[in-house]
Amino acid sequence: KSSTINALIGAKKVSVSATPGKTKHFQTIHLSDSVVLCDCPGLVFPNFATTKAELVCNGVLPIDQLREFTGPAALVAQRIPQAFLEAIYGMKIHPRPIEEGGTGIPTGEEVLNAYAAARGFSTTGSAQPDESRAARYVLKDYVRGKLLFCHPPPVDPPIDAKVFNRDLYDEAHLPEKRRAALAAHAEALVTGHDDSSLLDDAELGPLPPVQGEKTHRLDKRFFGPGAGQSQMNMPFHYKYSEQGTVVSGKQLSGRKFREMVALEKDVDPAELRA
């Protein structure tokens, strides 16, 4: 509602936020001498939202309090083309091939895995891609319009959503830094020096590894002088084995010799003593 009022007036008269429930009090704005707009707390539910996932993508439900992100992420993956997602985030999505049962369209899990891998988001302990953290970033970009999708008007015959939004996914709708990275990548392909990557941007690419004092100490011990001289710890019975006998030059005798022979022949050592 607040965004609609600002759009009608043509200036920022009321505060807006991507988080639903920003408006806390009732206020009136005079659009003209005969029209007064009222902005009040409350949510406007869109008539084309039929599931909770659509309510999240439409900005009705807060993303920071979201626990189930699979449905909303799947909607984003279906609506935004794969090439545009890869270009705007500088990542590579690996959808399941059609011959292996895939549909050719990336799933929400595949998009989140690619985003988490490009940003270095991983879970604690298992070191798996942190899909939950990646989902918050991707869904917030969708709600704020960085990943733009417009529903076609309800006309008869219906308009295909992909055809209706086709002009939104060109190079002009990419951030300036991403356009520059794409231009450098295309120039490298033409000249034959394909040394650049869309992940070279420090801001949009993967995060650099963080090295603390503990890491420096570990590296110093591992790569320091004399670190390459390893010492092999052998088991206690190594000197009695065939290899150990050759190394030490010692031969078994007496009781130990009889026990070794008994073990090799699988007999009782008492029989050999007799």
From TrEMBL:
InterPro entries: GNL1-like, GTP-bd, P-loop_NTPase. Gene3D superfamilies: P-loop containing nucleotide triphosphate hydrolases. Transmembrane segments: none annotated. Residues 1-45 form the G domain. It holds the Pfam family MMR_HSR1. This is G domain-containing protein. Keywords: Cytoplasm, GTP-binding, Hydrolase, Nucleotide-binding.
